């Protein structure tokens, strides 16, 4: 059974001007040990996909129209709130983009991590390594030791001393490590990392990516890495899903998608990244901008910006076709697998 | 050379609490660099390395502790307040965050014409001429005059950054400081803005002082580049030379940390293992 399976997920978002269809039929399967990159422009729904998995989208204004999200067979969309709370911080870990706003400035980082550890330990005593009958102070002590271990593991020097520091005493990279430690302390099976390195310097980014990669190797986590940095995806991800205006328009193994992009949007996105051989002025951006989701264009939502647009593009949203093993594309031009192999 | 920075050091007084003795923090240490007219000069460094301090010194928002900054041959520190204001019309800046750097209560027209009002004595434009100039600038950055009386929230990130560029160009500067102008934008939009900057440079003969931590962007845009680390310049030279044959350890470190969008060049994937 797949670790995470999202089937035909549709999410509407109510606003003053009407309901925007922000997720428009997401299909995604994540297995243990896989790192999935979710890429796309601002507003394409990548963060909402991540938030939907831990059910952090408030409803209303959000409304799940159809679809299911299952974590090892259990449908998260119909789970009760207490049930979700038992998953968050334990089975599902989340890292958010901005390390400065996701730590409470009024509490020492230790307290904040210990909170998560106690919550996870309450659900699974083996995490703290103390017996089920242990007293509150014993559990607290175990949680604190675990927090120090975790901070050391994510590369914070002198973790035993730093645990009693406040968030402002840490640099951006160190704060992000604290958040990673917090997300991992409950030994999650699925880690959702929403732009974990966007606010960081490249050298720190490289360290954080290394850390994530090693943790996946060690614990066989499934990871959803939400980012707009294609370089990061190429380096660390095993698979990638390219999103555009609420749809996954191309997905598959990183190598397949990056080496052999089939969808004009993926091609355009990859061509937007400056490379070593490019002369000034040669860079090709994607013309236009993302559509208004309150009144999306008919059919393929990329059609108005697409260079290869055809009359049939506006008829319906093109279905996903497998153009190769582990490579699906939702475009009318995509050739199915059999002929692609010939 | 339009800008010469000679042995600039900048110290800040830091005091930890009212009773503690003030200590000094050296934000910039003996920094020297020069930017030629019409070239694109890149400044690369991590957060806290002194990039922003250096731009604040160039704009004379802070005073140097020692050393000199010469713009077109004049020492900035020697200028009177009046001359300095005049000089500022020649040096303009585009900020990093197009969401925070435009006043949400001002129309695009007011945002772009404000610097022209401030530099009224240099430019000598009346209200009508300023409006004409705003329309001209909007067209120059690819937006068009129909946006004149809209507010910033009606625009996307890329469009806002175009407004920021139009505002910087309003007073006909020669020297443009670009402080991470594309780091808040999507790659597709970043490409559009980079190409716009390239066109503008050719059209208007601008000199760019381009600050970024994105080495891919720096390589694409800049003729020469300086790497700054903890307030010191560790390496500077022709962009291609630094990228092809870095001399300092720091340059090598930065280059190795730069994620390339090529799955085959990932440090996590040994080529043999990924061949399948």
TrEMBL record, chain A:
Subcellular localization(s) per the UniProt record: Cell inner membrane
Major subcellular location class: membrane
The entry's keywords: ATP-binding, Cell membrane, Membrane, Nucleotide-binding, Transport
Stretches assigned to the ABC transporter domain: 4-270
Ranges in a coiled coil: none
Cellular component terms per the entry's GO annotation: plasma membrane
Pfam assignment, any one: ABC_tran
Gene3D superfamilies in UniProt: P-loop containing nucleotide triphosphate hydrolases
Keyword presence, Nucleotide-binding: yes
GO molecular function, one term: ATP hydrolysis activity
Membrane topology summary: Peripheral membrane protein
Domain of life per record: Bacteria
GO terms, biological process: peptide transport; transmembrane transport
Similarity remark: Belongs to the ABC transporter superfamily.
PANTHER family in alphabetical order: DIPEPTIDE TRANSPORT ATP-BINDING PROTEIN DPPD (PTHR43297:SF2), OLIGOPEPTIDE TRANSPORT ATP-BINDING PROTEIN APPD (PTHR43297)
Protein name (Swiss-Prot/TrEMBL): ABC transporter ATP-binding protein
Automatic annotation (TrEMBL), chain B:
Alphabetical keyword list: ATP-binding, Nucleotide-binding, Transport
GO molecular function: ATP binding; ATP hydrolysis activity
Pfam families named in the record: ABC_tran
Domain ABC transporter, residue spans: 3-255
CDD domains referenced in this protein's UniProt entry, alphabetically: ABC_NikE_OppD_transporters (cd03257)
InterPro entries: AAA+_ATPase, ABC_transp_ATP-bind, ABC_transporter-like_ATP-bd, ABC_transporter-like_CS, P-loop_NTPase
GO biological process, one term: transmembrane transport
First-listed, main subcellular location of the protein, grouped into a coarse class: membrane
Cell compartments where the protein resides: Cell inner membrane
SMART domains (alphabetical): AAA (SM00382)
SUPFAM superfamilies associated with the record: P-loop containing nucleoside triphosphate hydrolases
Membrane topology classification: Peripheral membrane protein
Any single Gene Ontology cellular-component annotation: plasma membrane
Record family assignment: Belongs to the ABC transporter superfamily.
Protein name: ABC transporter ATP-binding protein
Species assigned in the record: Microvirga alba
């Amino acid at each position: 059974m797949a670790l995470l399976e999202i089937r035909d997920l549709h999410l509407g978002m109510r606003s003053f001007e009407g309901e925007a269809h922000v997720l428009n039929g997401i299909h995604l399967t994540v297995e243990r040990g896989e790192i999935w990159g979710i890429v796309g422009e601002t507003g394409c729904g990548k963060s909402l996909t991540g938030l939907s998995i831990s059910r952090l989208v408030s409803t209303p204004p959000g409304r799940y129209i159809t679809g299911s999200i299952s974590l090892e067979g259990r449908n998260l969309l119909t789970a009760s709130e207490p049930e979700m709370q038992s998953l968050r911080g334990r089975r599902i870990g989340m890292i958010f983009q901005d390390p400065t706003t996701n730590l409470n400035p009024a509490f020492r980082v230790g307290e904040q991590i210990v909170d998560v550890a106690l919550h996870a330990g309450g659900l699974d005593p083996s995490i703290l390594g103390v017996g089920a009958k242990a007293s509150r102070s014993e559990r607290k002590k175990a949680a604190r030791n675990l927090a120090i271990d975790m901070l050391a593991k994510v590369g914070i020097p002198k973790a035993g001393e730093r645990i009693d520091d406040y968030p402002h005493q840490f640099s951006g990279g160190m704060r992000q490590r604290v958040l990673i430690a917090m997300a991992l302390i409950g030994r999650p099976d699925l880690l959702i990392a929403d732009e974990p390195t966007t606010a960081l310097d490249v050298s720190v980014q490289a360290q954080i990516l290394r850390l994530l990669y090693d943790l996946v190797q060690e614990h066989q986590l499934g990871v959803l890495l939400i980012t707009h940095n294609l370089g990061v995806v190429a380096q660390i991800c095993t698979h990638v899903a390219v999103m555009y205006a609420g749809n996954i328009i191309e997905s598959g193994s990183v190598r397949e998608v990056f080496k052999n992009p089939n969808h004009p949007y993926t091609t355009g996105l990859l061509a937007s990244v400056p490379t070593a051989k490019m002369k000034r002025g040669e860079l090709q951006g994607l013309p236009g901008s993302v559509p208004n989701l309150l009144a999306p264009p008919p059919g393929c939502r990329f059609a108005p910006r697409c260079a290869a647009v055809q009359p049939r593009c506006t008829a319906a949203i093109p279905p996903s076709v497998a153009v190769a093993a582990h490579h699906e594309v939702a475009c009318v031009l995509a050739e199915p697998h059999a002929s692609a192999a010939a | 050379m339009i800008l010469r920075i000679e042995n600039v050091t900048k110290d800040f007084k830091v005091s930890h609490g009212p009773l503690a003795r003030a200590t000094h923090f050296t934000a910039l240490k003996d920094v020297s660099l020069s930017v030629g007219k019409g070239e694109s000069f890149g400044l690369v460094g991590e957060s806290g390395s002194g990039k922003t301090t250096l731009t604040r010194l160039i704009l004379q928002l802070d005073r140097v502790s020692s050393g000199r900054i010469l713009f077109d041959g004049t020492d900035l520190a020697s200028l009177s307040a009046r001359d300095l204001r005049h000089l500022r019309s020649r040096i303009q800046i585009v900020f990093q965050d197009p969401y925070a750097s435009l006043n949400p209560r001002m129309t695009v027209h007011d945002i772009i014409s404000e610097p022209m009002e401030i530099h009224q004595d240099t430019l000598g434009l009346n209200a009508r001429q300023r409006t004409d100039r705003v329309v001209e600038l909007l067209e120059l950055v690819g937006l068009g005059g129909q946006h004149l009386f809209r507010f910033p929230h009606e625009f996307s990130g890329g469009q806002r950054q175009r407004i920021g560029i139009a505002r910087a160009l309003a007073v006909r500067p020669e020297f443009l400081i670009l402080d991470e102008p594309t780091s808040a934008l999507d790659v597709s939009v970043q490409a559009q803005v980079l190409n716009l900057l390239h066109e503008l440079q050719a059209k208007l003969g601008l000199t760019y002082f381009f600050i970024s931590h994105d080495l891919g962007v720096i390589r694409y845009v800049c003729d020469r580049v300086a790497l700054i680390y903890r307030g010191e310049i560790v390496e500077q030279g022709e962009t291609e030379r630094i990228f092809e044959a870095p001399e300092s350890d720091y340059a090598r470190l930065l280059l190795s940390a730069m994620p390339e969008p090529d799955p085959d060049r990932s440090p996590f994937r040994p080529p043999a293992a990924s061949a399948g």
